[in-house]
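for the record, two folds in this file. i put them one after another cuz i was lazy. first one right below, seq on top, structure tokens after. the second one comes after a little note so u can tell where it starts
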Amino acid sequence: MNTLAAQLDLTRFLEHFNTFLARPKDFALPQRPNLWEHLQELEHVDCTPPPALPCLKDALKSFKKGGVWRLETLFAFVQIARYFLYLKTCLRPKQHPYLLAYLENIHFPQALLELSAHMQDTPTLKSGIYPDLDALLESLARLQVQQKKLFSQILNKASLQPYLVDRQIHFVNGIESLLVKPGFSVAIKGQVIQRSHTGQFYIEPLEARDLGRKIQEIQNRIEEHLARICAQWCGNLRPYFLFLRFINHEFDYLDHLIARVSFAKSADLSFVKPNDRGNFTLKHFAHPNLNNPKPISLHFDQSLLLITGVNTGGKTMLLKSILSAVFLAKHFLPFKIHAPTSHIPFIENIQAIINDPQNSQNDISTFAGRMLDFQRALSTPHLLLGVDEIELGTDASEASCLYKVLLERLIAQGAKIVVTTHHKHLALLLAKNSAVQLLAAHFDPQAQLPTYTFSPGLIGKSYAFESALRYGLSPELIDQARALYGVEQENLNALIERTSALEQELREQRVQLEIAKDTHIKQVQARLEQIQVQAQAQQTKQNALEQSYQQALRALQDALKEFERSQNKSHAHQQIQAIKTSLTPQSRPENPPPPPRTLTQGACVRYKNQLGTLLSLNHSTCMVALDNGLKIKVRAQELTPATPPQTPPQVKLERKPKAQARMRLDVRALEVLEALQEAQDFLANALLAGFEEVLIVHGKGKGILRQAIREWLKSHPKVLSFEDAPYNLGGSGAQVVKI
């Protein structure tokens, strides 16, 4: 992992991160449930970082075998317990539910809590708990004060000043001593403890020897007391060995998280949660090793990203940036990026083939080393592979075919690959694969400098001659090289680049056509669904009307039967008339009623809302035959003269002349408005003639007329679809329209 970090230029970045850790460890963070939630919540916790601690793995191994810890090791576990309890007090249930649930599941043994209560904020025991130890510590402090006073008196002796090297008290072999020059014996009596490398002497003054021995004796007794106390506490903690090992591991986990959050805040860095869907989008990413870098924005949605173009144009750094983003996100390390719009996949294995693997000691050539790297890649699952300058080491033509096969095998195995190359042949071979995404580095010919920007879908030019001029080579030599290279080769490269651009344009047009097709299909489906809903509503309404009519008809039939049985004929007659009235729509006469006329036999009369014929006329009563078949006798005052119904007008069918329809319209050489008018009439006639498909020829030219015709066809309500005509009918210069 450290080798990969060095290949990606992340060593300095990781060394800076390690300074935020409470104790040295590998930067990798083991995966565990709710890790992302813990990290996000810690960003909003106001707490101090954990204390600096030693590594306790060896101490735990010794403890497991029956060893006794010193007071410093016991204090380290006390510090761990105190920090967990302190962090718990900084959390709030609503803001930090995941962290709080995590900490509440950790229950410290009572023995460790009692030990914490017995210790100060340093690896020392509190006074008042162990009286014998307190007495020894008081004696030691008193003797040390006397010793300091005695040494001060010795250092101030006038006779000793010429022989003193310095005025410090040196601790040599556990004994307080002075550093003096040769011949010191005339000024002071003392025992030589050690000779310095400059020929001077460390001596213990005889005046201080007895006091020093007493101090040494007290210190030994204190060590004995501390050893017994530590052994007692180790005995109390031994049943909780598994918990001590667990809490030591959990402290490293919290240390990892808090160090990441502190590191991110110190440099305004962001976290990106790796996703399992494979989405790969970088927005404003900056490689950590660059000063004032140009941010990278990239959408990598295919299996292989092929980067071509100018030398020193940033291809290698782009490759390292892509691999670095995956590497840092995988380990939940913060970096410069616009996190809300970026998506980075989780890829288990990352391999970089960047440096020249040639090694004379192991007899490995460049090409042999590359083959060993590819062999390892072929046997690695779930892989992100980066290959820089893939053409190194062998013949260009052979390498193109070989690497095409190797890369396509890796694609078939599900690998994600980033490759930089100058091989036009390899680029052309891979460009035909739909799983390959092209990216070309830009060069500014006027400034003779790379722009460190990239265009998707193109095969870039190397600009080797221009780069050589920029680095100071003679223009004469460059001209000779150009002559050897030849105009034909230049034209071939230009043709390759143009072919790549055209293929990209065609691919984009196909995508746009597919999108337009899908949109049109959705619109048609929505319209069909709307028509279906309207038809269902109309059918429901018709069914309701039919049901109402049948109910009224049944009521009429019942009334007729009642009329035949009942002697109260007038009541039945009124019921019948009410039903007929409900079935007959009421309408207001548009013209005023004609003046009253004299009733005559055989005349058309109106009785209430019914028309009939006057059969007989007496002095006060009349017999009328109604149009519904009934004959009734009524008073003359209830009748009014009426106009007999006219015969329905005859519908005259007039046959229109057949439309002049054609299946092909040519609007070339017309203005846009004229062409659209011609197309409007042409489609109207085609619809009348019942045509389903017609051809409109607009030509190619600058594409103005083609664009106008296509925009008009999109908005035409009777056009189902349209597309460029086949090659033999005009290709992109004509549109096949389905109506």
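(here's the note) second protein begins now
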Amino acid sequence: MKNYAKVLFVAVLFFIFLGPSFSFAAEGEEVDIQSYVKEMQPGWNLGNSFDAVGLDETAWGNPPVTKELIDTLAAEGYKSIRIPITFDQRMGVGPDYQIDPAFLERVTNTVNWSLDADMKVMINIHHDSWIWLESGMSQNHDASLARYNAIWTQLSNHFKDYSTDLMFESINKPRFTASATESQNYLNELNTSFYTIVRGSGGNNSIRPLVLPTLDTGSEQEKLDGLYQSIVALDDPYLISTVHYYGFWPFSVNIAGYTRFDDDTKNDIINTFDRVHNTFTANGIPVIIGEFGLLGFDTHTGVIQQGEKLKYFEYMMHYAQEKDFTHMLWDNGQHLGRTSLEWADQQLFNMMEASWMTRSSTAENDFIYLNRLDTIEDEPLPLNLNGNTFISLQLNNTELTLGQDYQLDGDILIVKESLLTQLTASDELGTNAVLTIKFSQGADWSINLISYEKPVLEDSTGSISDFAIPTSFNGDQLATVETVYQDGTPAGPQNWTTFKEFGYTFSPSYDSNEILFTENFFNELNNGETKVTFHFWSGEEVYYTLTKEDNTITGVAEAIESDADHDLQDNELPQEEEEENTVPPKTIDNETPDPTTDETDKDSSSSTESSGNTSSENTKNTVFDKTESEFPVPLVNDNSSVDEKEVKKMGAILPNTATNMFNWLFISILFLGSGIGIYFYQRNHKQA
């Protein structure tokens, strides 16, 4: 018993005095950086809080961070959180550069809440990168480096005994007022200094995972190579690389006609992630996409059409996971409500949540537009199954009947005319019903059945700082806007393309029934007339003329056919014209564009990237061939006497020009000649 007591006494002393070191060593042996990064999937950013530039964490509009927010985040399935921190106004002057204790305590509380929620945590130096480091490294090098080092010295000492579930990121989006070579050298200097400070500060910092960014957190090959060489030189098994990704820029902000998740947008994901994978992951260096999303979200999450947005997130997250990247959603408050603790777009979250584990199926569109002045027909909708199988089509959680309500032709869903007629019987403009497609796995896909009429824009006047066009959207939604001067050259800002940036230059307001043009647009618009084409998601186009005279803006809508005229096209001529219904259509001076080339044809078998984008080819030319200066503006033909759908069915129609008059004259002569021939034949036959 005495010997046992001695052994027990020694063991107690061992754990009292050496226990922490022993635990630390065991933890160090168990840390595998590849597994560590995989366990972070998925991740989320606490944006616009501790990184906000102002008096406190509420300076950019978000409420104070709460434990309930962090617990909600963990309950929603997130395994890691990135906490961006801006220190600029929250620290004293040199040489100590002491961080405000109250601010550090707020950050520490949030770190503790996150660790208690079993999430891995990343903290960084955030907007200081552009506030004082960007120019400081070249213009005030020693003081800037000293300030940077002081931050990491204090953070390292403060958190050194925290578990390795807390990681440090050296700097966010590093950029410098210098050449590319000098900038990379400055970043190498900061990363190396950061590494040396943390590793030499004791505690768990000797094996704490450290996250190092590329220059600008960009993914160009030279930036990837620069970081790769730095990581190789440091020769440390606990280093992680990071880049950011916000998609193919024209699609990400909705400019240049890139309204669709098309091949260019998809290939940008593939090419970018392949470069990152080949540089880091394939060489044993794990990758975190520290921020991802769409740049247009900075203006409004509605800048990108809902279905196209969902397709982007589904594919981007899938391909990131295929390349073994951990991704962290950038959320500055536009996704998870900081007060409501609910998702602003539940459908988007459902898609992201499903994508953590599997692929989801999508469709060419998440809408079917039905012009209520047209005859309803079967509507085909191509599906992107992504390895899944179609299960059912539902309405209000009730399964619809195959063969009666819909049909399947391979990967094409055909919604039957009978169902569409039934669901739009109210004749109300806007969304009449929402159908839901169920697949073998992944998120559901919604189809909005929308009854619409051609939108109507009204004349308007205003100033460059206050101009709006009263608009009857009539159930439709705006996709993009195209502006050209009288000579056909692009008008307004970003004049390498005729299609303007959604949100930055214009935005629709469906609540107030108007389309707003911003001062950004008019500030770069020449005096004189500008032709505007409004492209809607139904495929409709509406034409408008803006005239700028210094600060004054005048807008005039082009006349469009009335509903009565449209009804006549679908039914009969008015009574007084019945006896003259063989008179050829009126002519106009310019030929109508060939309707067989209309890219908005709902029966088109084209892929999702081009279908519905009425100017995809023109767009690509203006984006990648900026020498092209001419862009045809279609003319309104108010004299068409044939329904558009019938035109598409026939595939061709005589052009409404002088040529048409010749054709009618030729046909008349042909009939007259035939009649004369028959007359003489019968006369000779009787004589015989």
